[in-house]
């Protein structure tokens, strides 16, 4: 899910099926995702980015559109034809000018703290987080009174 969120944010034009759900569960797995931290606040604002990143909150497609994560939400059966239409229209834009514009737009993103991200990915919390996910149980850092088996 988190990888899909990143792809969505870095897409030139993101179109979502009305069935889509967007979230960043990495922190629940022990990963401090520096890419989400650098890019998500620019799309949805700092308050909502913190809510999504710290709590694992998920957004529906319509919420994602309202907060600027996606440009359009379409009925599921219209996703492919709409995307094809957008791509056709996009191809009328001059390629180098399109790249220059993308560079200017993407310059707004924050710095990716690669050191923190790498330390997180190789830390003990990641092992426990993913083990808990596979075993369908809460990670050991969840207080005992909040643990519900089968949930993570």
Layout of helices and strands, plus pairs?
Elements lengths: L1 H9 L4 E3 L3 E2 L11 H11 L1 H10 L3 E2 H6 L5 E3 L4 H12 L4 H12 L7 H8 L2 H11 L18
Helix pairs in contact: 1-2, 2-3
Molecular structure report:
- The chain has 152 residues and is mostly helical.
- It has a single domain, classed as 2-enoyl-CoA Hydratase, Chain A, domain 1.
- Helices cover 52% and strands 7% of the residues.
- It contains eight helices and four strands, in the order αββααβαβαααα.
- The strands form two sheets. It has a two-stranded parallel sheet with strand order 1-4.
- The relative contact order is 0.17.
What is the CATH homologous superfamily assignment? 2-enoyl-CoA Hydratase, Chain A, domain 1
Count of domains:
1
Strand-and-helix sequence, N→C? HEEHHEHEHHHH
**What can be said about the biggest beta sheet?**
2 strands, parallel
**CATH A-level architecture:** Alpha-Beta Complex
The level of helicity is 40-55%
Task: Indicate the CATH topology.
Answer: 2-enoyl-CoA Hydratase, Chain A, domain 1
Spans of at least 5 consecutive residues with low confidence:
none
Q: What is the count of DSSP helices, taking H or I runs of 4+ residues?
A: 8
CATH C-level category? Alpha Beta
Strand content bin: 5-15%
- How are strands sequenced across the largest beta sheet? 1-4
| Backbone CA Rg | 18 Å
User: In total, how many beta strands?
Assistant: 4
Measured between the Cα atoms of the first and last residue, the distance is 14 Å
């Amino acid at each position: 899910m988190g990888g899909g969120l990143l792809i969505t944010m870095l897409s030139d034009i993101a179109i979502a099926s009305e069935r889509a759900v967007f979230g960043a569960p990495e922190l629940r797995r022990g990963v401090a995702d520096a890419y989400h931290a650098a890019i998500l606040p620019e799309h949805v604002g700092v308050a909502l980015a913190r809510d999504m990143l710290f709590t694992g909150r998920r957004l529906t497609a319509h919420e994602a559109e309202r907060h600027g994560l996606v440009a359009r939400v379409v009925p599921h059966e219209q996703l492919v034809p709409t995307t094809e239409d957008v791509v056709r229209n996009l191809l009328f834009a001059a390629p180098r000018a399109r790249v220059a514009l993308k560079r200017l737009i993407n310059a707004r993103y924050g710095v990716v703290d690669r050191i923190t991200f790498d330390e997180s990915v190789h830390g003990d919390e990641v092992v426990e987080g993913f083990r808990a996910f596979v075993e369908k149980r809460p990670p050991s850092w969840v207080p005992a009174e909040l643990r519900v088996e089968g949930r993570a």
